[in-house]
Amino acid sequence: MKNVSWEKEHRRREELWRRYKTGNDPAAREQLIEEYIPLVKYVAGRLAMNLPSNVDLGDLESFGFFGLLDALEKYDAERNTKFETYATTRIRGAIIDGLRSLDWVPRSTRSKARLVESQIYELTNDLGRTPTNDEVAAALGLSLDEYYGLLSELKGANLFSLDETAAGDENRDNLRILDLVVDQGLLPDELLVERESVKELAAAVAELSEREQLVLALYYQEDLTLKEIGHVLQVSESRVSQIHTKAIMTLRSRLS
User: For the segment 132-144, what is each residue's pLDDT rounded down to a tens digit?
Assistant: First the structure.
C-alpha cells in the first residue's frame, strides 16, 4: 500500500514537471513551488545554525526562495540528478549570496578568520600534519578558552558562494564549486579538474582529526543538527560548532 502511494505521488510530480517544462503551465509552476517551499525552510534552518543570532531566519528564507525559482527554471528533468539535490545547492548559494550582499560579517571578523587560516596553514607545513587546537592556540598567543571563544565568533565567517571558482584564475569561466556537487554536464577538461579537486578535498579531510571528520560526516552526510551531533559526541552544541568551524578553516587553508 505504501509503495502504491509513493508511485502515485511520483507520477503526480512527473506530470507537474511535464506540464511546466513542455507546456509552460503557470498553474503547474505554482504547484511545484508549493511542493518545494519546505526545502527552502530546511536549507535556511541548517544554515542559520552556523550564523549569529542577529541574522533573521525570514531573510534567509527570502533569499532561498529566489534560489528555488532559479532551480525550477534551470532544472533538466531528463538528467538523473534528483531535483531536491539540484535545488538544495541553488537555494544554499542564493542564501549565501544574499548574506554577502548585506556584508553582514564585520571586517574585523574576516581579518581574524584569515589570520587563523594562515596560522593553520603555516603549522600544517611546519608539522607535516593538521595542528591540534592547543598548537593553534599557542601559535596565536591565546589560551585554549580564548581560542574556543574565537572559533565561536568566526563560525559564520566561512560561508562562501557556490558560484565561486574551485580552481584556476577567477577571472576565467572555470569549474565552480557548485559543479563539484551537482552534475552540470561538464566538458572533458572540466571533468579532469573536478576529479583532481575532489581528490584534493578527500585527502585534506583524511588529515583532519577523527572527531572533526565525524562532525563533518554527521552534519553533511547524515543531516544531523549541531544539537543532535552534540548528543552523539556527548558534548555541548557550542563545542560541536567550534569543532565544525576549526575543520572548515583547516580545509580552506589546505585548499587555498
Answer: 999 999 999 999 9
